[in-house]
Amino acid sequence: xxxxxxxxxxxxxxxxxxxxxxxxxxxxxxxxxxxxxxxxxxxxxxxxxxxxxxxxxxxxxxxxxxxxxxxxxxxxxxxxxxxxxxxxxxxxxxxxxxxxxxxxxxxxxxxxxxxxxxxxxxxxxxxxxxxxxxxxxxxxxxxxxxxxxxxxxxxxxxxxxxxxxxxxxxxxxxxxxxxxxxxxxxxxxxxxxxxxxxxxxxxxxxxxxxxxxxxxxxxxxxxxxxxxxxxxxxxxxxxxxxxxxxxxxxxxxxxxxxxxxxxxxxxxxxxxxxxxxxxxxxxxxxxxxxxxxxxxxxxxxxxxxxxxxxxxxxxxxxxxxxxxxxxxxxxxxxxxxxxxxxxxxxxxxxxxxxxxxxxxxxxxxxxxxxxxxxxxxxxxxxxxxxxxxxxxxxxxxxxxxxxxxxxxxxxxxxxxxxxxxxxxxxxxxxx
Length: 431
Description:
This protein is α/β, with parallel strands linked by helices. The protein contains 14 helices and 19 strands.
């Protein structure tokens, strides 16, 4: 089983480093001296005897990642994922910051709930950036305390995995959130067209007898949201884009000058609808895995910048909620531990460099919510990760730190591995 070996970052040398700086797009050689969590020197050449040394030869040192959308389950559903277990999963994936969706119990829909979350998470090994709900109780009827939550520190608003069907409420949410400079993240899946579907509508789903969700369930939802945002001059972020038609829509509105960003998940980059051929609920995901043509279109959209970043969409479920029959099992997969390594494996095959993939996790995600990039510099806190970009490996349940094991990537080949994370005056070695 994989383990997290955490020690105080008191007197350490990270030697023979290739230090990548996303802001300059340059990589420099160096030896990083860290004392009590502070970077003292980037090119230390003194005696090593008094320091603990981590040899980073042929490794990349880069700022840690931020994940835009995670479903952690505390408060209310700690048996599925607690803040502590989720934080360990995040560290294993190289994430120092995660944006937590509001589908907890109680829902993150008020000032009190946000302040309570900050209190619960203050001693975690990572930073939790809360996303407040758009509507109270995720019911789609009445706006949450958006202004109070924004002043308290939420980075976006969303009803998590539920689409806000009422267009007038969504309009008010986009108008209101624009006053605070935070994006609206609305799950793009028309509930009428989705109905009870679980698979991509295609010849494959017809042959398998699987209730299907057409791509227009996504595109109609996205088109409505983009039109509203354009009308009120608002800011929207489109989560887990899954089909080529959505890419075309987003490109159109970006060309019009709308403040719109978009993301894709690792599983939509690498997997297709055929994974449901064995009726395995691990591949029941919302939105569904789609065609090979859609998968290629998503990769091309990352190349051209139409899609801005990659998000894990980490959604833990209990065993009994994923191992029941396909129709009654819940949608969603975990993904923090495997997000970078699987994305790099898929994108490298399409010509991406490791630095380009790092930017998708460390830079672009932060830009979307206006969080500053953590720079590796003398006098600053040690907040970086160590990546072996050359290693090839296979993901299995022993690599999972989450309480839940519902990964769609078990058995999949990976490229590159997070070996260590320096953060908050600690060094976490992933063993």
